[in-house]
Write a structure and sequence with these properties.
Strand content of chain A: 35-45%
Distance between the termini of chain A: 35 Å
Shape of chain A: globular
Radius of gyration of chain A: 13 Å
Structural class of chain B: mainly beta
Number of helices of chain A: 0
Order of helices and strands of chain A: EEEEEEEEE
Helix content of chain A: under 10%
Oligomer: heterodimer
Shape of chain B: globular
Chain lengths: ~110, ~120
């Protein structure tokens, strides 16, 4: 099964907002409200930012928000900080054989 | 707070079996789902398998024949064995907690780099 489709890179300036898309199929993103988003800094483990499409774990800034429309989920980061520069991965529960499918990752550059 | 720590050999020879252990501290291993996820150098994430209370297990279909996952509740540990490894299995391996069976991973270990090479 193919990975979820994310843009390879996005960029923004401090204070701006950016959105990262994550496109799947009706067998994963479109069929279940089990989309998650992760932030990964170089050499570090991923950190859960969003689960269940829109939910933030305790301690995650409300500058991070998630949404979904059809087969595409989105992560929006508002009021960009320089420390937001990282790789971002989406994931979804899937009815296919892999149980969970990840996106290929998006590198966010804060200019 | 709950912390996870992977332990493993670092280097494994081709065709051998990779064995990894994850020690859970700061909380009980019971009641949660515990997964292994790997990340080849410079690439994305790949889920491998999960175990829940030593009753429910699920494995990635493409790895199913090579993967064994187990839990030792008395030691608050869970383990992964991956047999017949090749260079394609070279990756950082993470042990991860899932609060439920909804494919969201809330607590991650720091990861351990495993290189398959002779």
């Amino acid at each position: 099964q193919s990975a979820l489709t994310q843009p390879a890179s996005v960029s923004g300036s401090p204070g701006q907002s950016i959105t990262i898309s994550c496109t799947g199929t009706s067998g994963d993103v479109g069929g279940y409200n089990y989309v998650s988003w992760y932030q990964q800094h170089p050499g570090k483990a991923p950190k859960l930012l969003i689960y269940g499409v829109t939910n933030r774990p305790s301690g995650v800034s409300n500058r991070f928000s998630g949404s979904k429309s059809g087969n595409t989920a989105s992560l929006t980061i508002s009021g960009l900080h320089t420390e937001d520069e990282a790789d971002y991965y989406c994931s979804s529960y899937t009815s296919y054989s892999t149980y969970v499918v990840f996106g290929g990752g998006t590198k966010l550059t804060v200019l | 707070q709950v912390q996870l720590q992977e332990s493993g050999p670092g280097l494994v020879k081709p065709s051998e079996t990779l064995s990894l252990t994850c020690t859970v501290s700061g909380g009980s291993i019971s009641g949660y789902y515990w997964s292994w996820i790997r990340q080849p150098p410079g690439k994305g994430l790949e889920w491998i398998a999960y175990i829940h209370d030593n009753e429910k297990k699920k494995k990635r279909k493409s790895l199913k024949s090579r993967v064994t996952i187990s839990v030792e509740t008395s030691k608050n540990q869970f383990s992964l064995k991956l047999s017949s490894v090749t260079a394609a299995d070279t990756a950082v391996y993470y042990c991860v907690r899932q609060p439920s069976d909804t494919a969201a991973f809330d607590i991650w270990g720091q990861g351990t780099m495993i290189t398959v090479s002779s």
